[in-house]
Write the structure tokens for this entry.
Amino acid sequence: MEKLEKEFNEKFGSEGEMETFFAPGRVNLIGEHIDYNGGHVFPCALSIGTYAVARKRNDHKIKLYSLNFAESGVVEVDLDNLSYNDSHDWANYPKGVIVTFLQANYSIPTGFEIAFWGNIPNGAGLSSSASIELVTSIIVKELFQLTIEKIDMIKLSQKAENEYIGVSCGIMDQFAIGMGKRDHAILLNCDTYEYFYTPIPLDEYTLIIANTNKRRGLADSKYNERRNQCEDALQALKKELDVKSLSDLTKAEFENYKYLIKDPIAQKRAKHAVYENRRTVEAVEKLNQNDIESFGQLMNESHRSLRDDYEVSSIELDILVEAAWKEGAIGSRMTGAGFGGCTISIVAQKGIDFFIERVSAAYYEQTGLKADFYAVDIGDGAKRL
Ligand code: GLA
């Protein structure tokens, strides 16, 4: 924070009152590719995230600077011209949020300046983009004393990502980052936005994130393709069934009516969605009964389903997950959109160092890549500091 404040003063001058903010990253424990299928997800906010220092200006200029992209310098735009610009790169995320607030008729009468610094590894599927969106939302709210609920900031941040950035993500990331609560995961119904906090005091277990360090190639186009395949499957089912989303179906209903989905690929995608939604609800029930073993097994099933039916895993993710299974993880799966990024595992506390050493060695041997490991520390949602 000190370094960030110092940089802020260097870039923007030290006059006037600055305020500080934070938004976390997130990791999803189970319920993958379900948010846009109207079902349940179970993410939590991380203690790593995006820090920001911000201050109002007297003119209409918006100045954005990130310590993570120091070489790009300060991106300067005008409140009256915030159109998307490729050359602005990362700064399009905060710009998108500002645009979305303006479109929703929130009053932003003057410009402002922000310096960001984040410690979420980029492109690792831990939602660095949603983190920067939510921190910007909080900044805009606080600087201009807007009356806006958290849930609306979450929705506007998602809208910025959908419409301004052009990635058709669901609500999960922005929701987890907005609503996160220390030491809790969130069971969110993505249809109704009803949510419950579940304490994650795993006692003798730890959640470990392993980063493949393989950037997610083609992730956005494949992501949108999966969404379309699910939509096609839903339309096929709707010919006979009165359902709003794939998550409305029970597993038995799906098995009875899957013949309606003629395209075998779309049928596999739909199977994942239906089963994963049910699996998520069951997994949280198990957790509430303190049955970590069963929770872990459901995580493993989730991975197999993402690998075989949804086909969003990658060689690197599979190698990490299989090594984790072999080294005694209670559960392990890819997390986030897939095609690279991270896995999440539950590991017995006492064997963690050995686990990391073994999984790391197996991964290096099979891929020539070095994985990074982080013990998950579940933190709070986006806030003013
Ligand atoms: C990305 C999207 C989320 C969600 C996950 C997959 O993180 O941003 O909305 O769909 O992928 O579960």
Q: What stands out?
A: The first strand starts at residue 19 and ends at 28.
